[in-house]
Task: structure prediction
Amino acid sequence: MRPSRETTTTTEVRATAAVVAIPLLLVPFALIAALVAGRWGPLHDLDETVTHRLNEFALAHPGWVGVMDWWSLAFHPTTWRVAAAVLAVWLWRRRERAQAVFVVVAMTAGALLGVLLKLLFGRHRPDLLDPVAQAAGYAFPSGHALTNALGAAVFLMILLPMAGRWARVALWPAAVGIPLVTAFSRVLLGVHWTSDVVGGLLLGVALAVLARQIIERRRVPERPLG
Result:
C-alpha cells in the first residue's frame, strides 16, 4: 500500500520539525554537560544557591516535602517504564508495530544512556547539613527528569493524533507539567542540583524526538486495522 499524500506531508513536517528541535535541545544539554564536567564556578554557585534556599524552604514547610516526596515516587522512572511497556503491548496488538518499536527503543535508550552518563560524569549529589531526603547514585543527569521528559514526550507523540479535541487540551498541560513538577521535586528534596534536572529534561525530550525520527525513516507501510 502506498502512503497517501497527506501521510507523506505529515511525515515531512515531522522531519523538518525534528531537524530544528534536536539541535535546540542537544546543544544546551551539551553546554550544561561541559560546564558540569569542567566544574565551572558560576554554575556551581548557582546550583549551590538554589539548593540551599530550597532546603531552607523545605525545612520550614514539611508539608511540601511530603507532597514532593509523594510526587517523586508516583512519577518514578520505573512507573514510566511500566506504563510504556503497557503502551507498547497495546500498540503491538493493534498492529501498529512501528509505534510500539518507537516506544520501546526510546524508553530503553533513555534508561541506558542515563546510567552511562551518570557513571561518566560521576557528579555527587548535594551534601546538606540537614537533608530532608536521601538518594543513591550519581547526580548528572537526573534520572527522574530525563525519564519524565522522555516518557511524557513519547506518550504525547502516540496519543495526541488519536485524541479528541478536549483530550488534546488535557494532554499538553500534562506532558509539560508533570516533568517540570518532577524536576522541581528533586531539587526541593535536595537530591539533585538544578543543572541535573535541566539537563535531564533537555536530554529526555531530545531522545524522544530522535527515536521517532529513526523509526520514521525505517518505517514500512503497516497493514490496516481489522
In short: Residues 125 and 136 are 9 Å apart (CA to CA). Helices lie at 5-37, 41-60, 62-74, 77-93, 97-121, 143-159, 165-188, 194-218.
